[in-house]
Amino acid sequence: MTVKWLMHWQPKPGTTLSTQILTEACQCVESIGGQKDGRWRSVLTFYKPMQRDALVPVDHPRDFLGLALQEQPAKYYFILRPNRIVLEADASIQVIMEKLQSYKARVTLNFEGFQYKLGDFQLRVGKCVPSASEALRGIMMEVEYIPLSSIDKSRQVLEEFFDIWQETISKKSLPGHFMHIESNFADYGLQDRYTSHHTAVQYATCMAQLIAAVRC
Amino acid sequence: MECVVQGIIETQHVNALEILLHGLCGVPKEQVRVHELCLKSGPNLGVVPSEVRLLCDLAHPTPSWTVRHVGGAMRGSGADQISVLVRTVVESKVSNNVLRFFYGLGYKLDHEILKVGFAFTFHRGAQIIVTVTSAHKMPKLHAIEEALPITPNIHMVEITAPATAENYNEVVAAVSAFCEYLAPLLHLSKPGVSAGIVATATAAAASLMSNSASKPL
Fold first, then answer.
1. Could you tell me if residue B138 is inside a domain?
2. What does the similarity note say (chain A) (predicted)?
3. Residue B52 sits in which domain range?
4. CB-CB: which of A52, A83, A89 is closest to B100?
């Protein structure tokens, strides 16, 4: 698998998110030569424990994340951040979790948008919305550099792309900017060679940022 | 869903059973070496207590992990009348950190065993898997290299067949029909309803062994 950076839109303090930002970001991708080549959809689910007695102290996590990625339709990923674990499973693991009745899928967030081809890059730009409402929770971007699967080797080219992208988007004078938070893959026992596990970790990192941004 | 029956056979007759199965199935046997860990939900976790099995397949150079959830058996008068258990089973192949993951969720190890033996997978009216194994216990946690047979004189035989809500009647019939062939050597019944060992097994085994001696496989 080739290296991917996940980015999220960080709004300026005091400003709110709007779909206008997404539209402008898509226009920016097209302005630098991006060719639309399909839709993009990932689904992230928060699993929360089901307790028999809410008053009894527990030794299990408050929540963990489940992730379905478009590029791996037969797989499903669980991310347990406090323990730094990312688990890859067949999609049927969701049925097992349901049958165990120990954790319940509480909130589902859909990442939906468009996919673009731009030379050696694949870009995906989309919004993050809860499945139960239309409320916009975030704007996300995936940048994939197709020729390389080494994180270290692709760092420079992705950083250069990021600079060009920031310059392009800044011309629109939008209230905020895209951010790439570097995930600590080593904490999860992941190596330099990029896999879907890395993508799952990045989603968890991004999610923490989006939640923090909402709380600000 | 799966259809399942189980039985036991004395270890001394396992070679005869293997010869019979090989003759009936016409496929080579596969080695079975599975480390099975049974986990149970910790206190206060879940609406009801739950149980999940993690299976580590050690028969291949790279171990692979599967999560298996066995649900309730089909009930009702129809289910009582058939000699095969029909139950829901969901499996998912997972990465090798699955034990840490379930510990992280608050599950605890209840027990672990190592199943060693062989299996035949073939098609006869339905896809059927016959597994003949000896269960081993570990003297220390996860010490599979030091595992010892729990019942050295007895092997477990399990016949399973994947099924769906639409076709389980046919699959039950296929499994029942196949069980008939094994009747001289062992009784197969629903899990938990042990039928014991078969009185004719010694004679049947001797006959199979002498036939195979004159006709090499």
1. yes
2. Belongs to the Mediator complex subunit 20 family.
3. 2-212
4. A83
